[in-house]
Amino acid sequence: MKKLFASILILTSIQLSKAQELETILLASEDASLLTQNYLNPALEGLMYSMNGGWANTAKVHKAFGFDLTIGANLAFVPDESQFFAFNQGDYQFISLPNGENDLPTVMSENDAETEVEITIPVGDGTFKVASFDMPGGITEDLPASAVPAPTVQVGFGLPFKTDIKARFVPNISVDDDFESGLIGFGLQHDLTQYFGPLDKLPLSVSILGAFTSMKVTYKIADENISDAVAVDNGEAEFKMNTWTIQALASLDFKIITFYGSVGYNNGKTTAKMKGDYTLTYDLEDGSGNQIGTVDETISDPINLDFEANGVRATIGTRLNLAFFKIFADYTFQEYNTASLGIAFSFR
């Protein structure tokens, strides 16, 4: 089972592990943060939407002390317009694109081609620090269905007063000492049908759900190319994601099949940090473009970014009921539309 969890987290984290190729962006000085944010934004937004999926596949809650185990996956589909970001020269101080591109691929682009970026930084005495690097392309071909995945491994337990408590927990798992990832989440689902009088005799169930999820991914940035212009010491990329959702659910629960849906709101926040010490090497040129030497500059913990994703959501889905064994699939309409599917073992 631990290998299964590790495999799920590898798929979840692979889009973030691209950060190991981002250390050369640090040559862009003050422009590095904006360039990194534009590049990573679709993956992190998609992951936050994906993390809020799969919390319920029926509005019907357990009887007291009933429980379920659910294993599944959520796939957030990146909108076409988020596969690229506009490169506006006026937004940057020191970088330029020598080939005149107007758009650059994000990490979630189908275009995996690298883009050359040139850097010219005035020193202040008539000389300039000069360098170049290749901006990485997209990685969607490495992801299932070209979407941002998130695992769903959770248990639900029936409490008195027709309320379910839900928990998601994947322990910290290290893979090849390169990255570590873990997830934890909690939710409450409360039945509202009980307050509607005779409606509780129908197959219709109505409930309200609130849930919170936290995930952390760390990835070592190795100095794989000692001949490039960036030397890395104790490099690490760290991503911390917190999301919450509130939803009103309704379902028609029959013996063999369940139809369910919900409307609600999502919110998510992520911090992304690039930690460690980085020594940057620039060519030093005079005002005529003649190289007159090189210069080194060391920076520490250079990247600290914030990302947000929020908005309304609406879900439709169905579940096949085979005694205590359930198979479900649903689709959520939101900024990053999300498909959820999985299996559940439920005992009322």
Automatic annotation (TrEMBL):
InterPro entries this protein is in?
DUF6588
Give one Pfam family, short name only. DUF6588
Name of the molecule in the record: Outer membrane protein beta-barrel domain-containing protein
| Native species | Winogradskyella alexanderae
